[in-house]
Amino acid sequence: MLSTGWEDDIEWVQTYEEGLARSKHSKKPLMVIHHLEECPYSQTLRKAFASSPEIQQMAQEDFIMLNLVHSSSDDNMAPDGHYIPRILFVDPSMTVRADLTGRYGNRMYTYEPEYISTLIENMRQAKLLLHTEL
What we know:
By secondary structure, the protein is an alpha+beta fold. Helix content is 37%, strand content 11%. It has a three-stranded mixed beta sheet with strand order 2-1-3. The N and C termini lie far apart (33 Å).
C-alpha cells in the first residue's frame, strides 16, 4: 500500500522521479513527506495529516503526493538535513520550495501536530504561488 497509513483515498506516486514527472506534466506541485514507520513523531504527524479534511482535500485535488520511508539521496530534498519527519514542496519547474517552512529554525521542514495549521497554510501557498509563477 503506497499510502503507508497517510490516507488511502490519496493517489500516491511510487518514486521521487515519478513525482517530478507527474508534477511537471500536470502543473501541480509535488508534496514529499519523509518519514519512518516506527518514528513516534512521524506517527503523530501522520494521524494529524489523516484527520484533517482540508489537508485531505488539497492532497487529493491539488498536489502530486509522495511519501518516502527512506531518505532520498537527492540533497535538494534535505536543504537543512536528513531528519525525519519532514515535508517539502516542489513546484512543476522542479524547484524545491525552500521558502515553505514549519515553525522551527533548526528543523525547518518538520511539522508538529499542534501546528498543522502551518502545514495547511504552506499547502495553500504552494498552490497560490504556482498559479502566479506560471
